[in-house]
Amino acid sequence: MNDTSTPAQLQARIEALEIKASFHEDLLETLNLTLYRQQQLIDSLQATVRQLGERMPEAGPPGQHNLRDELPPHY
């Protein structure tokens, strides 16, 4: 800092710093909200994957068919 700065110059620098701080606070709030929404989406997707994993044993191993689900032969 220059020792010959006038009070008006110091006031202008303080205002510039306050403006930057305000923008940084707004950016931080925006990023926090974005992060919160992404975490909600991740939680939802994990629950969906868990539910699908629980259903897989009900479907049986791949390649195994239930005879009731097959169409009758055409005559």
UniProtKB/TrEMBL annotation:
Residues 54-75 are annotated as: Disordered. Gene3D superfamilies: 1.20.5.300. Residues 66-75 have a biased composition (Basic and acidic residues). It holds the Pfam family SlyX. This is SlyX family protein. The lineage of its organism: Bacteria, Pseudomonadati, Pseudomonadota, Betaproteobacteria, Burkholderiales.
